[in-house]
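Q: Got one fold?
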Amino acid sequence: MNARLRVLVIGGGPGGLSLAHALRSTAGVDVAVYERDVSAYGRQQGYRLRISPEGEQALRDCLPRRNLRLLAATAAARRDREITAYDQHLEPQWAPSIEDPRPDSPEKIDVVDRVTLRQVLLGGLGDVVQFGKRFTRYERVADGRITAYFEDGTSDTGDVLVAADGSGSRVRAQVRPGDEPRDLGVRTVFARIPMRRAFEGGLAPIHRDRFTYVIGTDGQHLGLMPMVFRTQPPAAAARLWPGLKLEAAEDYFMGVFNVHRDELAIDDRTLFALSGAQLRDLVLSRTRGWHEDLRGVFAHVDPCATFAVPLRVSVRVWPWESGPIVGLGDAIHTMPPSGGVGANAAVRDASVLSRALAAVARGELRMVDAVDGYQREMTKYANESVDLSLKIAQWSMRQLDLAPQP
């Protein structure tokens, strides 16, 4: 092994970038992140993200103080104090309460904008992250290290290869062929709805200050989740990190429309090829029989920020072989995006794995023992997280059978 431990991270999502920060501050470790997106602005993965107490602690474990201050400054200004659930006729339904032991404070990070989160996580990483790098395969070399190959013909060799490349992980496909997340059959349309434009356009006032969920008796479900920034991202960066570019973002709702593919009568190839405007019109058409204060919610979406995705889940999370190839985030524990549970699990992975690799760098643990310890801890909370994400999904789509099959 080299004098310094070299870690290759495939994927620049929240888990991969949090891991990079934690390892970059660790003596005796070099880290490189390879991201398939061509830039920091190229990923569609939803908009608003709830950060759980465990996720916030993991971010604090991994990130430098300056990144944390900027993330707190751009987080949501107010907590979701209430989930209001209706059926499509605006009749109230039961909804779970939101329990969060954290007191309100300007330093709390409990709801963030995904794009802003990613840009803040990139802050300070410099040339650690390389964009436009699509991983193709890895090889174990004679000295026990791993070489990663990319579509552009380049390669890199390290002591550890971390699969942080999401639910469609190419690393996982080579490590465990056939180990694919189960398709739950649910199709989700995500949209960003500018708050000011929506209310000027006639969005009902009942949606103004709460997390609204419509549980349709027609098998269709719609969520409306507010994102009100504590400080607008460019202004926060100008004050706390001059020179770091954060994209301007006005206050908005994240709109989420869920329906089972069997109800759509549209094949996946057609659905995922629809433009944002076509998806908007699809949702409006399918909700035209709803109460007048509900059916027009998607009329106000930004078509350029509207897209459809399938919901998938890992049936059960099992450890990979304890060695130099390690799974992190959705690559090893895919789950529905319900409540941001998956993203929180990914940053917890980064915290736990960074501690394990730091022990290797210090000579306190063998690689195989460090990875084994990480995987034991990870699989426990990851399976709990999968169960929680499914529980939330089953509440919000109660007519759909989302229980994973063995």
